[in-house]
Amino acid sequence: METKKHTWAIAITDEHLLEFSYMPSASGVDHLADDNNFAEAAERTAREFAENIDITLTPDAERQRQAALTEASTLAQQRA
Fold first, then answer.
1. Which residues partner with 17 through β-bridges?
2. When comparing pLDDT for 79 and 3, which is higher?
3. CB of 31 within 8 A of CB of 38?
4. Which pLDDT tens digit goes with each residue over 21-78?
5. Better pLDDT: 34 or 18
6. Residue 69 CA to chain centroid, in angstroms?
């Protein structure tokens, strides 16, 4: 029998991925059953984690972030 799992991931750099993998435990509970809402609980846990950490970017990463924000803003203005 294949073990089902739910994965939530976010890129934190071009080379690094923060990934949470959730899978049923040996408790015998079907965590993937609709009434247990496993996927929602996994996402909520990952979001709560992300909201409670502070990532300090390197100067290069900050420049990349600013460039991406500028590009996104320019594209949004062009579409408007």
1. 11
2. 79
3. yes
4. 877 665 666 655 666 676 777 778 878 888 888 888 889 989 999 999 999 999 999 9
5. 18
6. 19
Query: Which residues, at least 6 apart from 75, have a Cβ–Cβ distance to it below 8 Å?
Result: none
Strand partners for 10: 18
| Sequence-ordered list of residues with C-beta below 8 angstroms from that of 50, at least 6 positions apart, any chain | 10
pTM above 0.70, yes or no: no
| Overall residue count recorded for the chain in this entry | 80
The answer to whether 40 and 31 are in contact (CB under 8 A) is: no
Inter-CA distances, 56 with 3, 10, 44, 48, 53, Å: 36, 16, 23, 18, 10
Tokens at 76, concatenated: 């949004």
